[in-house]
Amino acid sequence: FYHMDLYGSKDRFDIFPEELSGRGDRSLGDMRRESALSSKKVQRPQEVGYDLEKEVAELAKMYGLDEDREKEIEFLGGHLEKVESRRPPAHTEKAGSQGSIYNTSKSSSSVEDPSQSTKQQGLPDEASQGENQSKGRADDEAESNIWSKGGLSSGGMSDEWNSQAVSEEEEEEEEEAADVFCSTCKIPIRAFDKLFGEHKDHEVAQLPSALESEKEEIHKNMCKLEEQIAQMENVASHLEEIFITVEENFGRQEQNFEVHYNDAVQVLAQKYEEQLEALGEEKRQKLEALYEQLVSCGKHLDTCKELTDETQELFLENDKAEFMKVKSFNYIIFSPYNYRLEEFLRKEVDLELSTLPDFEERVIDISEVEQLMNSINAIPAPCAPVINPQAPSAATGTSLRVCWGLFSDDTVECYQLCYKPVSNERHSDEQAEHTLKVKETYCTITDLLPNTQYEFWVSALNASGISPPSERAVYVTAPSPPTIKTKKIRSCENAALVCWESRDLNPVDSYTVELSKLTDEENDDIITESIVGIPNCEVLIHLQPTQKYRVCVRAQNLGGSSERSEPVLIHTTGTCFYLNEDTAHPLLAILDDGFTISCDELENPECDLPVYDNSFTRCIAILGSLIPFPGKHYWEVEVEEDTEYRTGVAFENTPRHGHLGANNSSWCMRHIITPSRHKYEFLHSGMTPDIRITIPPRRIGILLDYENCRLSFFNADLAQHLHTFKSHFQHYVHPCFALETPGILRIHTGITTPPWTAL
Amino acid sequence: MALKQVSSNKCFEGFQKVFEHDSAELKCKMKFGIYLPPKAETGKCPVLYWLSGLTCTEQNFITKAGFQQAAAEHGLIVVAPDTSPRGCNIEGEDESWDFGTGAGFYVDATEDPWKTNYRMYSYIKDELPKLINANFPTDPERMSIFGHSMGGHGALILALKNPGKYKSVSAFAPICNPIQCQWGKKALGGYLGPDASKWEAYDATQLVKSYSGSRLDILIDQGKDDQFLSAGQLLPDNFIAACTERKIPVVFRLQQAGYDHSYFFIASFINDHIKHHAKYLNA
């Protein structure tokens, strides 16, 4: 079978039935007979040499054959002689051809001798070979077809082959003086034939040109053959590998068989011993019982005989009286004989066999053996696989890619992957275990919970069974993308404070903030900065003024990084803060825009409004949440002319029960309306300078300048400076707003600090 | 219009100088103080005119107010002229401290014998700026004015009578409503005649009522313990009321108890005023 693969086509194989011993020879079979390998060439002269030595004896032997046979050989020999005569001795084709002939002869055995004679007789004819060379070559091709046919119909068909050869021989005799080539018939012909013979209508060519084209053809074929040699060599080396693999596999299977059969034999031997023992025991018991019965039987017999003798004795007593006396009642009663007889007769003889001769039916249990036998052909159950620890980037928020491997080269049909969420709670049993069958040594499990630990273990399965489970490996899914609290973003010209919340229950390791500076150009998405390893849910980012930034957050855990959060846009045109609702007095309302505060009434009749821990209780006020960043912050407050208000800044912990500006933790401008005029106070610790302002500001600009230790108020519409507090703020302050009469205050943030605030 | 340097002292990297010149308007020799900030050595600077109060010469402000540092910082040329013509030998000019010499009141007199020389309004408005612009590296487009007491009155009326001429105006304890106070009545009556209606042209409170033009941002500081405030010479409330009504932006700061009418008071708040003017002059 091995060879079949190599040769593919059957005819070549059949032609060289005896050359299959070595690889060098095998490759020969690949060749067409027009050419031959050098190995063959080498082989041939050796054979010839050998043949010549024996030539005389062989010739004699040849002549010793019967008439028909001789004639056949003669024909064949003649034909071969002619073939030989048309070829130069060194011509490769000749060697190949001869080799073929030789081999075929050998296989058919009947043409062996003629081939010898051909060689012998062919040598003197060399002189005439030159001129006939081309013709011979054409012939040769024609012949080779015949040889092939001969080969196809197997080596044994020499008769048919001979007859063909004979007819060809006759044909060839006519063509001896050929000088042109008939393209139609593919044979050299005499020019005369072209004019008058059967080739009259055929296309002819001059012999030299025909020769050239044939040579080219041959060269092409040579190339093809060389290619095939290379190909075959590859195949052969591949086969060698397969050969080794087969050896290994079969070796292993042999071992496997040995182990299993040994097991089975042992089990059988054990069974045999057990059964034999049980059988012996039963036999002994039965024999014992039978012996006992036999003994008692013997005793009975003795008694019986004794009584018979006594009875006989009695019977022989002639004295009737004596007899009767004996038979008398008293006698009967008191005679020991009578008593014994009575007794004996009364006693039933137990003729039942105490035990059955046949043995108990025993079920020979060979199921174990059967099982063993069955398992012989099967492969052993695999060993436990080894589950890999979690690889980086193996996790997304909802999926995990789990990998495992086998230590041994067990045959595995599939794996059984189990997992469940890791839980510290006692009801962990309630957590469903999931089982999957997987063909590969990896699996991507989807639909998982984000930022959750899962335990994985895997078993290997094949027809023989299931392996023990692997160790349990804990994998963790990536977190969910955090949610940026868009309403809680604080920023200024040089920084932003972004905070977010995790969407996962379990804590994550850290967060990464990604920052892209947006330009008018297209490549907006280029991340200009990443801040990694943020432990909390907020970060202060330093930015450049008057830019637009897109900010995203990712959560990070051992499993990897979450998707990006929804991005937020931050403009560093000016300071942006938000109102801290927790601090709002119950009567103070924030409208939907988030920056308009209103107060409808100063007193609530019900007085049971909810008051939060952090809210102002006396002053109807609210604090903003300003970014804790040094530098300048500017915002504006739009007021109605008749609204009384306080606005300014305060420490975060400014007393909630007092009025803004009445303590040393707040600084604010106050507007009150007196009967005569609008009164403006600039309050800190309850003190105010006496300042008269002729135009009530409608839009108050507030500049907080930490660097220059000042808090300035402006009439923003007029760019009019109203007042400046000079203070080294010990802590960061927050904007504050309070209404003292019903009305509204509109707060404007994100405003570029106007240049006129500079002085 | 030849300038004669009287003195020159380096001050905060600039120079505080005093010049003397012959005034065509006043027909006498006039002195003025000028502070040239370091910036003036390399470029043109805005000019801030200071008008002093009664009895003052060009010396009071430049020696007492301590404005030079702020002026140097903001690159302002500060010009401090005298308060009246001097040495004109007009009869009665030295009789009282609140009329005549040292009390020009920044008006152009119409009455004899004052009308020839006492033309302080025109001097401040036209001649002095022309002189300054011709001799110093100034930006003629950028000028402001401020003053103290009578000078505060002068600054206010100059600003109010010449909308757009001055970028800003401020005053320390100005005489806001001279037609209503003793000082004003005496001076205006003396220079302009008994017809009180003529006085109104030099009364800030009256001028505000008819002011229209480019926006002014007026800063006024007033000491709470200013004896002339309580004496009813200054009357800022009238001016504020008029400004409130006319929507003229004023920030009037009544400074803490203890501040009086002196240059100590001025020195305390001079920086705020320099900043106030610098904000508009350097905008």
From TrEMBL, chain A:
Domain Fibronectin type-III as annotated: residue spans: 385-481, 482-575
InterPro entries assigned to the protein according to its UniProt record, in alphabetical order:
B30.2/SPRY, B30.2/SPRY_sf, Butyrophylin_SPRY, ConA-like_dom_sf, E3_ligase_FN3/SPRY, FN3_dom, FN3_sf, Ig-like_fold
Compositionally biased residues, Basic and acidic residues: 19-35, 76-94
Positions in coiled-coil regions:
262-293
Where the record annotates domain B30.2/SPRY, the positions are: 557-756
Q: Which keywords, in A-to-Z order, does the entry hold?
A: Coiled coil
Region annotation (Disordered) ranges: 19-47, 76-176
Q: Where is the composition biased (Polar residues)?
A: 95-121
Bias kind Acidic residues: ranges:
167-176
Please indicate which superkingdom the organism of origin belongs to: Eukaryota
Protein name, UniProt field: FSD2 protein
From TrEMBL, chain B:
Q: Which GO terms describe its molecular function?
A: carboxylic ester hydrolase activity; S-formylglutathione hydrolase activity
**InterPro entries attached here?**
AB_hydrolase_fold, Esterase-like, S-formylglutathione_hydrol
- Cited Gene3D superfamilies: alpha/beta hydrolase (3.40.50.1820)
Catalytic activity, as annotated: S-formylglutathione + H2O = formate + glutathione + H(+)
| Top-level taxon in the UniProt lineage | Eukaryota
One short Pfam family name for this protein? Esterase
Q: Where in the cell is it found?
A: Cytoplasm
Transmembrane stretches in the record are none
Query: Does Chloroplast show up as a keyword for this record?
Result: no
Q: What class of enzyme is it?
A: hydrolase
Task: State the active site.
Answer: S149, D226, H261
Similarity annotation:
Belongs to the esterase D family.
Its biological purpose is as follows:
Serine hydrolase involved in the detoxification of formaldehyde.
Q: What is this protein called?
A: S-formylglutathione hydrolase
Organism, by scientific name, is Brachypodius melanocephalos (black-headed bulbul)
Report the gene name.
Answer: Esd
